[in-house]
Every structure is written in structure tokens, then in C-alpha cells.
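Hey, sorry to bother you again with one of my protein questions. I've been puzzling over a protein and I'd love to understand its fold better. Take your time with it, there's no hurry, and the full record follows here:
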Amino acid sequence: MAHRIIGRKKELAQLSSALNSDKAELVAVYGRRRIGKTYLVKEFFNDKFDFYATGIFEGSKQDELDAFCDMLRQKQKEGKPLPSLRSWMDAFTALRDYLKGLRKKRIVVFLDELPWFDVPSGQFLKAFEWFWNSWGSTQDNLKMIVCGSATTWMTDRFISGKGGLYNRTTERIYLAPFNLGEAEELMRYNGLDWDRSLILDAYMAFGGVPFYLGMLNKSLSLDANIDELFFREGAPLRNEYDFLFRSLFKESDYYMRIVDAISRKNMGITRKEIAEQAKASANGSLTKALKNLIDCDFIRKYSSFGKKERDALYQLTDLSILFYKRFVEKYNGKDERHWTNIIDSPARRTWTGIAFEQVCLLHVPQIKQALGIAGVQTEVGSWRFAGDEYTAGTQIDMLISRRDRVINICEMKYSSFEYEITPKYNRELRERVSTFRNVTKTRNALHLTMITPWGVKMNANSGVVTQNVTLEHLFR
């Protein structure tokens, strides 16, 4: 049934390689919640596993053990009764004994939401290590798939931990959010006959998260869908943000304070500013939290052009979180058609501009392909000049600095029509490029690149643009 899977070609190849190998495989599948990890594994294996169990969110040690053992009892209906299991060592011993009795060319085991099994003082990970190192890794026909939304646990404790599982995973499959092209394919599969401008608008609100995009109702308009999912009474995504962080991070309040601080500045914020605004000590805990948020695709870390690593900025990149922070978090619940009724509001227009910029930053490979530089080594950043007594301040939200001594100065503008460059904006663009060259002293060629949904309208002022990237390019 793998043909039903949208995108994920690399990940499917990894699963296929593991399934068809002649050795034991321990495959770790990880990525943020709602990204489609369980769906990928179940569809690939046609939901046929020799053993399957899933962790329970915020379950006790006994809850987790009971659920695991219940699945074992179901598998052993016709075998000898399962003895009382009081610990994870007992549970994995029973699992080993059950699997030993199978006479099959391939044995596939799937443990879903693995981090949820690992409750404090439960000793789950030690028992798993014993099971795999003492027996599982010696069984050439055993294919063990483990999956987890708590990306930090999966990377720090399981994949890269310094314990008995260090370097034991044979395949590591990280699921990233969909790009625009994959989102379009999913929405078409689900029967949404929307044009690309509507798909872009949906992507700006929900991001590339398949679960959210899959909730869109084809019988409703996009605005009505957003009202239904976020703003009506009992809306299914109203409390998604809190649940998302609680399911991923044990110190969820701490992480949400950090994200709140980062979300206040569109271009990004320094580590020092985050510590001050989030009331978090600028120590190892903050460093780890920022890394974890990057690993979950919630934020990015980047350096402004010409700046050093210590001056790096952190910027919110998760579009669904950006939408939540702008519109859902402080919603008072009094207007169930809230999104439809603010269609022409300044807040909504401002958000579309910011969200479109983030879409562009998430589609740098597509932009490079459109510019004909897919194979050229590049660095992507921004640039800000505060100004001085001679020159006004300015900022450039995206620069593509190329190994071939060219810098693309990218202007990202959301518009429902061809974007028209006025005489005033023409002067601003020329001044921005001139200021950048004079302040940075760069000798590289500077190409002013416009990224707009429908291109630039040809007029007397459009000649300032060197290259133009449109929605068609972003969907590739």
C-alpha cells in the first residue's frame, strides 16, 4: 500500500532497504508530532506486524506495561499463557520468547511513540538495550521499527545516547514537514480542487504538517475551514499548541516561553534577548532548548551577512505556530467566523507578508533551482543596517551568497496579482542595493531578485529587477 504515501521517496527507500537486507535492522523514525511517522510505517508495511505496541501519553509505568503486555497476550492467544510481567525486563523477555517461536523469513516489530514508554524510574531504556544487544541484533530476519514524536528524546537518548544503544540504529529516518509541492499533492489526493494561490494561503496557516492539511474539508472555503478548525466553539485545533509542546518536551512551559520570545521579532532575536525576555538563564539549558527547537523545525538559527557566529539570530519558522501566536492564542472565543470577518484587517495583511517570507525561506532549494544555481554552493542569511549620520537604515530579509561571487538580494512580496513596482519603490530598491554594497564593501555582483506569487508587472520601473521567482517555481 506504499503507493498511497505522498512524497517521502527517500524515506521509503530507507524502509525498503531495511526490509530487504540480510541482517538485523533497528530503524528509528522521528520528527515532530502530526508529521505522519505512524502513517508512513503502517502504510509501508500494510499494517501487518508480528508485534505492535504504542506508548501512552503521560501514562504511568504500570499503564505502559499493561498496554504492552496486552498486545503480547493478543499475539499469544493460542500459545502458553503469559506470566505476570512486573518490569520491562520481564516484558522484553516475554517479547523475545514470543518472537523466537516465529518461523518466518522476516519478522517485523513496530514500537510506536517509544519515548512515552520511558517514564521516570521505569527502566524501559535499559531493558530495551538488553533486548536488542543480547538477542535482537543477532537475528538476521528481525526488522525492528521504533518511532517517536519527542524528537529530543529520540536523538539524545536513543539515537545519539552514550549508553548501550550508542550507534546501534541501522537506519535513521527524519520526517520533515511537506513542501508546497507535496502539500498540493496531498490536497489533490483528498479532493480539494483549489488553485495554487489558495493552497499557498492554506500552507501559510497550517504549514507543511500533513495531519493539519488532511483536516481541510473540501466542501468549505479555506476561510470557513480555518474558522471551523480554530475559532468555533470546541474547534479541534484550538488547543493544539499546548498539547504539541506537552507531548514533545517535559519542561513545556519553559519551551513555550522561549518560542514566545522568538515570535515577537520577525527577523529574529539574539540568544541574550531570548534569555532576558523568556526569563531563562543563558546557560546550557537554554542552549539545549534552542537546539531541540531547531531539531523540531520550529525555529532556525542563522547569522546576518558579515556577522560572526556569536551574533547569530533565532527566528520562528514553523508556520502553524506563527499563525497560532498571531491569531489563536489571544482569541476571546466570541466570534465563530473570526477569520472570515477580519479578511481585510491590517493584522491579516501584515501576517500574510510575514508568512510568505517564511514560505520562501522554507523553499530555498526551489528558489535556487529557479535561479539556475541548484548546484552552486550558497549561504542564506539576512542583513540589517541600523544607519548612521550619512545613510538611512535598511534591512534585507533574504540574501543568497553564492560561491560564484554573486549575491542575490531577495525581495519577498505577497500579492494576489502581478506585483507592481512604483517609482518610489524603485528608488528604495536601488538605495537598498547601493547601501548594501557601500557598507559591506562587497565586490560580488548583486542581483536584485523578486519573489512574488504572480511575478512582476512589466512597466517603466521593473527594470531594476534582475531575476523573478514565482509561485510556479516554489511548487516544484
Remarks:
- The chain has a mean pLDDT of 93.
- The two ends are 25 Å apart (CA to CA).
- Residues 230 and 239 are 9 Å apart (CA to CA).
- The longest strand covers residues 394-402.
